[in-house]
Amino acid sequence: MTIEAFDISLGDDVLLDLRERLSRTLYTQPSDSAYWAAGVDPGYLRELVAYWAGEFDWRAAEARLNAFPQFLAEVNGRKVHFVHLRAERPEGALPLVLTHGWPSSFVEMLRVAPLLTGRFDVVIPSLPGFLFSDLPGQPYTRRGVAEIWHELMTGVLGYERFGAFGGDIGGGVTQWLGALFPESVAGVHVTSAVSTADFSERPATPEEQAYLDHLAAYDERDQGYSEIMWTRPDTIAAALADSPAGLIAWIIDKYRDWSDCDGDLEKRWDKDTLCTVATLYWATGSIGSSFRQYYDYPNNRPVPPISVPAAITLSNEPAYVGLPRSLPERVFSDLRHWSNPGRGGHFMSHEEPEQVAREITDFFGPLS
């Protein structure tokens, strides 16, 4: 296993090609007169693409990203990209691994990470197949990523004990870390992808069933994007890998839907951040490989009982409205921290970094 320092450095030819493609974007007419009713509003997309092509300063964004110490590690023959921030007072500092989801990136965690270094070392990996991290050599599962992260934290970075935090895919990875490695994982903290249990032995309560029915109804309205990525990822990837406007539309559709933004995307995401994330996906050609965890999803198995200390700070997004505490308690036998702040959605670490920093510190502080 090797580790080396890494800086992001996109070639001028990549940026020129991107701007030229953006300048040739063709736009559709809206399917509905209501703003964003049928997906990304074509008028907003035109405005964002014009900003990306003309005003957005990638070199300034690149410098901001490179202000965070980044590395590439070889884990089981595969490349893993990560940010690594050391605690201001190293003695007794608990390491934390923060894991993002889809269609996100390590950028999601960069607002909260500096707020944690007073007490913690912070490691922010890019998920396999995202940006600068290689796809795994076997089917892509949350358990498999947890095994990679454990090797990164213990075998590569030399930590004997660490905490884990994440949401969405990162929440699933975090739970598997706690289930598989209780001897080295001090605790797990999730904001979404909260596991539910097998109900064969203990049927759902009326409150639990009401939530499960709500979730199923929400999925019927929301899951169109995932159906194509589960069944035909290469088809949609071909379009998005060739059209940067299509790529950013695919991403911001979920940023608006899943953020706690009241329908106003830029309440949570300024154009510079949106263009930064989209440029990273574009330049690395990784939108298609980011779909692999959808295509391989049937290989996932239910998370077994988790005995390490656990915390939930519940995402304020439609999928988690009404989630009763009793459901995660079926999986987490030591649920020590339960919080429903009513602020911050799917990308909570970016949307509410101060809130997340307080929640992480309140939970992991006593475990240090």
From TrEMBL:
Annotated active site: D168, Y294, H346
InterPro entries referenced in this protein's UniProt entry, alphabetically: AB_hydrolase_fold, Epox_hydrolase-like, Epoxide_hydro_N, Epoxide_hydrolase
Highest taxon of the lineage: Bacteria
Keywords associated with the record: Aromatic hydrocarbons catabolism, Hydrolase
Molecular function GO labels: epoxide hydrolase activity
Domain Epoxide hydrolase N-terminal: 3-109
GO BP annotations, alphabetical order: epoxide metabolic process
Pfam families the UniProt entry points to: EHN
The protein's name in its UniProt record: Pimeloyl-ACP methyl ester carboxylesterase
Organism: Nonomuraea endophytica
